[in-house]
Amino acid sequence: MAVDLGSVGRSLGPREVHWSARDVMLYALGVGAGQADACQELEYTTENSTGVALKVLPTFALTLVQRAALRPGFGDVDLSDIVHAGQRLSLHQPLDIDGTVAVSAAIGAVEPKRSGTLVHVDSDLRSPRGSLVAQARSTLFVRRCADGARLPGRTAQEVEAPGPDAPAVRRILAPTRPDQALLYRLAGDVNPLHSDPLVAERAGHGRPILHGLCSLGTAVRRLLSEFRLDAGAVRGVEARFTGPVWPGETLAIDAVRADQALRFSARAEGGRPVLAAGVLHFDGALRPTGLAAVNLRRC
């Protein structure tokens, strides 16, 4: 059960994924829209409110990758050995309220580390006419070295969490619901780590944890609100996942504006770092900040 270092370039797809306004609204509810006040954030949660047009949260694009369910093989690895370590999303054109994209996925890189292996999975989303709609890179941390040796007790917290890139100018609180993971999984990510107590126990968490992409989507939604940014102005987002969030916890997001970007990090209750090196790009070209350079503790 080792990671296949020769899997780079292995690909699957394209596969068509369709979505509707209902999917857009269900996703928004899954990342907490309307949770504090059902009369707020109606632009994400309703399609028929007076004077309010439905909008698509930018991170909704990542659910289309999940729904495509394209998983190029990179070895015989148990699901409980895989941790979502980071995510990047580039948006090349706005997402429609309903539509279709063709999703393709490939293994972009495999990086052996002393404490495991990083696997980068790259996905392209294209319109029916072939134009590029979005690109995503999911960084997975496999708790096995290239020779198959498993490192016991490792969790997502072993990805080091650097401090914010600049002093925070605003702290934003983002509560989550006890059933948040059950609601979010309806957007397409049905990994049992987030719903099955036995799988969560095997992974060393004790009980199901919140999806990393749910934490990221929640943070992005709150940033858009607090900084009064239009969802259609977002050009990309990236972040590292540095620790688990349990449904029902409140996230504390520290954010600072820098040119055409918001830099952010987040902590769960007790001060545990859960999102690091976050960048939300808007109204300009995406400027990647090297998500692939994930620092891991040594064995």
UniProtKB/TrEMBL annotation:
Record SUPFAM superfamilies: Thioesterase/thiol ester dehydrase-isomerase (SSF54637)
Positions of the MaoC-like domain: 167-263
One of the record's GO molecular function terms: 17-beta-hydroxysteroid dehydrogenase (NAD+) activity
Coiled coil (residue ranges): none
Top-level division of the source organism's lineage: Bacteria
Pfam families for the chain: MaoC_dehydratas, MFE-2_hydrat-2_N
InterPro entries assigned to the protein according to its UniProt record, in alphabetical order: HotDog_dom_sf, MaoC-like_dom, MFE-2_N
Signal peptide: none
Sequence ranges assigned to domain Peroxisomal multifunctional enzyme type 2-like N-terminal in this UniProt record: 20-143
GO biological process terms on file: fatty acid beta-oxidation
Descriptive protein name: MaoC/PaaZ C-terminal domain-containing protein
Organism: Aquincola agrisoli
